[in-house]
Design a protein that fits this description.
This protein is mostly helical. It folds into two domains: 47 residues; 118 residues, no CATH class. The chain is built from seven helices and no strands. It is elongated, with a radius of gyration of 25 Å.
C-alpha cells in the first residue's frame, strides 16, 4: 500500500468520527451531546494550536522565508540555464532536484528553528546559534545559485574570493569568514 492510500483511509476514519459525533450532538441525550462536543473540541484543538503557532512564526519571519524561497527560485532558474548550456538538461531530474531542495530546506529549517527553543532565555549563544543556522539554511540554495552563476560566467562572477568564503563557511560554519579582514582594512 502506498502512503496516499494510508492517508486516504485515515481521512475517512476521521471524517466518520466527526460525522458520528455531529449526529450525536444533534440527536443525542444531554450527556452524549456533552461527550461528543468534548471529543470534537479535543480533536480540533491540537491541530488548531499547531496551525496558530506556525502562522505566528510565518508572520514574524516572513522576510527570512521570502529570501530563502527566492534563493531556491533563482537557483532553479539559473540551474536550468546551466544544464541547457551543458546540454544535459532533463525535466525529470530538474523537477526532482527542485522538490528535493525545497524539502531539505524545509526539513532542515524546521529542525534548526527548533534549536532556538532548547534554551528559553534569549542570550548571545542562542542568538549566535540562530544566526548561524539561518545562514546555513539560506546558503544551501543561495550558494548553489552562486555556483551556477559562476559556471555561467566561467568563474568571473561572483568573485572567487567570495566563493571561497562560502566554501570555508560550508566546511566549518564559522560566520567570521564573511567579516572583512583587518589586514586588508588597514592597508586601504
Amino acid at each position: 500500500m502506498i502512503i496516499w492510500q494510508y492517508i486516504s483511509i485515515g481521512l475517512k476514519v476521521i471524517l466518520a468520527f466527526i460525522i458520528k459525533n455531529l449526529v450525536i450532538i444533534h440527536k443525542g441525550t444531554a450527556i452524549a451531546k456533552f461527550k461528543s462536543t468534548m471529543y470534537l473540541a479535543i480533536l480540533t484543538s491540537a491541530p488548531m494550536g499547531l496551525f496558530e503557532a506556525i502562522s505566528q512564526w510565518i508572520s514574524s519571519n516572513g522576510g527570512y522565508i521570502f529570501f530563502v524561497l527566492l534563493a531556491i527560485a533563482i537557483d532553479y532558474g539559473v540551474g536550468i540555464v546551466v544544464h541547457l548550456k551543458k546540454r544535459d538538461f532533463s525535466i525529470k531530474k530538474n523537477i526532482l532536484g527542485v522538490i528535493t531542495k525545497m524539502a531539505l530546506v524545509f526539513a532542515v529549517g524546521v529542525l534548526f528553528e527548533g534549536f532556538q527553543f532548547l534554551h528559553p532565555d534569549a542570550n548571545i549563544i542562542t542568538q549566535y546559534l540562530g544566526l548561524i543556522l539561518r545562514v546555513m539554511v539560506f546558503l544551501y540554495p543561495a550558494g548553489s545559485a552562486l555556483m551556477n552563476v559562476s559556471i555561467l560566467t566561467n568563474g568571473s562572477f561572483p568573485p572567487v574570493g567570495f566563493m571561497n568564503k562560502i566554501t570555508k563557511f560550508n566546511k566549518d560554519a564559522d560566520i567570521r569568514h564573511f567579516q572583512p579582514n583587518k589586514d586588508s582594512d588597514e592597508s586601504n
